[in-house]
Amino acid sequence: MKEKRKNMKTPKEWLEKHSKGEGVNLKKLKTKIHAKKFETKEKEVKFATEIAAKAEILLTEQKGYLENDPGETTTQFTQKDIANNVDITAATKSFDLKLEFGPYRYEIQYLNKYKSENYKFSRAKYTKNGRHLVIGGKKGHVAAFDWLTKKLHCEINVMESVHDISFLHIETMFAVAQKSWVYIYDNQGIELHCIKRLNKVTRLEFLPYHFLLASCSDEGYLSWLDVSIGQLVSQFNTNLGRLSILTQNPWNACLCLGHAKGVVSMWSPNSRDPLAKMLCHKAPISAIHVDPSGMYMATAATNRELKIWDIRKLEGPVQDYKLINAATNLAFSQRRMLATGSGNIVEIYRDCCNQAAKRPYLLHKFNNPIGNFNFCPYEDVLGVATARGFTSLLVPGSGEPNFDSYEANPFQSKKQRQESEVKALLEKIQPELITLDPSKILEVDVPTLRDKIEAKKKLLYVKPPKINYEPRNKAKGKGGSAKIARNKKILNEKARKEFIKATKDILPEVKKTKNMKKPFNVLDRFLPKKKQQ
Fold first, then answer.
1. CA–CA distance, 360 with 73 (Å, rounded to integer)
2. How many helices (H) and strands (E) are present in the chain, helices listed first?
3. Cβ neighbours for 522, distance < 8 A, ≥ 6 positions apart
4. Which residue in 70, 254, 463, 472 is a FRET match for 80, CA 20 to 30 A apart?
5. Are the C-beta atoms of 55 and 15 separated by less than 8 Å?
6. Taking all residues of the chain, what is their mean pLDDT, rounded to a whole number?
7. pLDDT level of residue 430 (50, 70, 90 thresholds)
8. Which residues are in the BING4 C-terminal domain (predicted)?
């Protein structure tokens, strides 16, 4: 087997894809023992990268895109054309649900120079593995189901307005931001918890690796709730007014908020002040979303601008677009396709981050206003929540074709789900590690370390100052100063007792002299009465 592996040639592209960086320079190591240890480690790393690269042969699924003939554009293809030209399993992923308790949307903003009207509604979300879907309506309709098999888990009416909805770490629990508080339900529609400390919540985001349910409220509060222990990790007022635009950065788990002054702020539960602020637009921000890899961030404003930023640099925009209408919703796919929604039109752009996209990749028009949409993980599907229901659109090339079963398995059984939940709890990341650059945790703080070394060197050449003090008279012997204090106490007690004994004989005589009467004198009768007494 080893000879066969040596004879197999792996392409350089696959090796670069799975490489783990540059190795250790063995020449700089001083001792031979450490050199041997690192040499064996480097061999193991190279062997692991070769095996991972050779495993690419087993990944049979490949990404695909729509190709147009000369003189045509991909925007001419409708959903019917796509569904008729794909296999049966892919065609079943395109469907339309007509529901009565709408509108099923997130937030539609009709903004211009003269008027501003905000409509608050709910949204639809997929699970991490992309198998299950939960939707919520304005009038309180909440439903969770397996959208591939169309099997309904639960369908309830909470009898009050629903502002947002989100799955937790598994598909058997989901959180609903209702009129006053946040409620948690199971997949049978039974209410598990009512979190009254999260009131008037407008947006919900779940951080799967930290088990944190993040929320922003109508009163300007940011909250992080640890789902595993049921306690609030952090909650504070941002002092930025009403918060209605929220998304998370999957790379560092920071929350990104959009504000009316065109500023995007990034928050962590460890700081009451924002970790960073970016002036993205000169107009109020209407939508914001971060790429699943955490590299790019898309922002849209009411002045019809769409900008894409390299969120790692916090510098100028990578791409700048001018749309026909202001985008009220944005969503990135796993293959970095960007969907924009304005009014009742959805436009999907391909390769818009690295190079300027001249025209949309796909375009779809609805009869009702769009509320919210999300790309389904590991599927070429875009789920759109509208005013009259839910629609699943086919978008070829949007999802990752091959999935890692240890990370997210769409075909997992009940036992596998339980094991993955236990493993995720054991590997849970603490909220103290949420920072802008999580790679800095593994680095050595070189400036502070250098300052410490220089401070130690200075102490070697500094003479200690003279201190004037009176030396204490230490007692010799086993007892020390404690024994002297005890002896002093004993002597004082003895002196007090001797004084009391000596005064016992004198006290009675003194009392007698005080109580003795004066001798009688005959001439006293001629004195005044006061003196006689």
1. 9
2. 9, 30
3. none
4. 70
5. no
6. 83
7. very high
8. 360-438
Asked if 258 contacts 299 with a C-beta cutoff of 8 angstroms, the reply is yes
217 backbone φψ class: left, alpha, beta (φ>0; ψ -120 to 50): beta
Tracing tokens 């978008």 back to the chain, one arrives at 395
| Residues 201-229, mean pLDDT to the nearest whole number | 94
Q: What is the pLDDT of residue 447?
A: 66
Quick one: tokens of 497?
């007792």
* Amino acid sitting at position 300: A
d(Cα 237, Cα 446) in Å, to the nearest integer?
A: 35
Q: What mean pLDDT is predicted for residues 503-517? A: 54
Dihedrals φ, ψ of 158, to 5°? -80, -5
Q: Which residues of 363-383 are buried (b: 16+ CB within 10 A; e: fewer)?
A: bbebeebbbbbbbbbbbbbbb
β-partners of residue 265 are 257, 277
- Hey, what are 343's tokens? 């009014």
Sheet order of strands, 231-237 included = 201-207, 212-217, 221-226, 231-237
Distance (Å, rounded) from C-alpha 203 to C-alpha 248?
Answer: 11
Q: How many CB atoms within 10 Å of residue 289?
A: 22
Q: Are 216 and 257 in contact (CB under 8 A)?
A: yes
Cβ neighbours of 457 (radius 10 Å): 9
pLDDT of amino acid 182: 95
* Cβ-based neighbour number of residue 112 at 10 Å: 9
Residues in the chain: 533
Tell me the per-residue pLDDT of 103-119, one tens digit each, with 9 for 90 and over: 664 333 333 332 333 33
**pLDDT category of residue 205 using cuts at 50, 70 and 90:** very high
> 432: which 2 tokens?
């103290």
Q: Among candidates 408, 319, 371, which has minimal Cα distance to 99?
A: 371
| Class of residue 64 by CB neighbours under 10 A (exposed 0-12, middle 13-18, buried 19+) | exposed
Neighbours of 336 (CB within 10 A): 19
Structural contact between residues 435 and 255, judged by C-beta atoms closer than 8 angstroms: no
Residue 56: exposure state from Cβ atoms within 10 A (0-12, 13-18, ≥19): middle
Question: What does the pLDDT average to over 192-210?
Answer: 94
Model pLDDT, residue 115: 32
Cβ proximity of 184 and 198 under 8 Å: no
Ranges in the chain annotated CATH 2.130.10.10:
74-441
Place domain 74-441 in its CATH homologous superfamily.
YVTN repeat-like/Quinoprotein amine dehydrogenase (2.130.10.10)
Separation CA 296–CA 314 (nearest Å)? 10
d(CA 48, CA 45): 5
Q: What are phi and psi of 107, to 5 degrees?
A: -160, 125
